[in-house]
Amino acid sequence: MNERLQKLIAAAGLCSRRTAEEWIIRGKVTVNGNLARLGDTADPETDEILVEGRPLPKASARTATVLLYKPRGVVTTMQDEKGRPTVAELLPAELGRLYPVGRLDQFSEGLLLMTNDGALANRLTHPRGEVCKTYLLWVSGWHDGALEKLRRPIILDGYRIKPPQVRLIWAGGMQNDGSGVRDQGSGCGSGVRVQGSEPVGAVIGRPPETPESVGAVIGRPQPAETRKCLPLEGKVPPQGADEVVLRQRIASDGAPACAAAAARAGTALLEITIHEGRNRQIRRMAEAAGLKTTRLKRISEGPVQLGDLKPGQWRPLTAAELKRLAAESTEIEYGKP
């Protein structure tokens, strides 16, 4: 049976449908020796479909989806021409070839789904799916009115983003500007709290002792046997440092990093929930509000939460999580309204 090429490629577990479209446009796909074009269909049973000169694998009868805590300093790709550590190196070979769902940039961290289920990847990455994602954002340059500016919808890539949900967890060296530190509700129930302190939104002017003491997620604890990790020894910088320090360390090819900067006036920690996934969206939102991002961590995607995983660890998604993800996302058929 003929189906769209991008759907066949995604079903084979090579990538999402959107990435498959890019491959077709860039001339990486042929059908029966002919260069494929966007919109072409084929029958995998009778047609020879090649991707970068290699036969299209048969669609996997067994799908797998895992949640990975992507550390900072690791790139969200399967191979990197610059020799940087990749997310593929964090998963064991017995899982098979799993591909990242969406992206986290090199200096961001946290929840990243990896799967060979092309249909699921398509639903989660397509803008019309509107699966909410929640992040913790550490910034410097905090000022009066910044919270209100972050909550405004802005234009990114010619598109007016939907108003994000933003709440202030703490601000150092600043008085409450009255712009609302109470929980505004993220709409996704991320359940962030500051451990060993008052409820979120109640602490102004007193940052936590270390960045790692923030962001515990209230939810189902993970059994110890499911916490698995393949550390990239010597390739990934320490995860507790300020992002500026991490950039300097990576740029200096492993030179000793400076100690993480102490909490200073004008710093803040926020929780932000967005529905789109524009390129570097939260960083650009912060920049538009006059803030500098020092750390960015994704803690939930739809019903799936990072929980107490550590950088580099992963766990399989449960059947209940997969069912809820399917319910919260929308099946998208490219080229159809």
What does this structure look like?
17% of the residues lie in helices and 24% in strands. It is an alpha+beta fold. The strands form 5 sheets. Strands 7, 8, 9, 10, 13, 16, 17, 18, 19 and 20 form a 10-stranded mixed sheet that branches. Strands 3-2-5-6 form a 4-stranded antiparallel sheet, with no helix packed on it. The chain has a two-stranded antiparallel ribbon with strand order 1-4. Helix 1 packs across helix 2 (17-25) and helix 1 (5-11) packs across helix 3.
Total of domains: 2
- The string of secondary-structure elements, in order, is EHHEEEEEEEEHEHEEEEEEHEHEEEH
- Tell me the distance between the termini: 22 Å
Helical stretch count? 7
* Residue runs with pLDDT of under 50 for 5 or more positions: 174-187, 189-227, 250-263, 331-337
CATH H level, superfamily name of the largest domain: Pseudouridine synthase
Oligomer: single chain
- Radius of gyration from the alpha-carbon trace, in angstroms: 21 Å
Could you please say which CATH topology of the largest domain applies here? Pseudouridine synthase
Gross morphology is globular
The total beta strand count reads 20
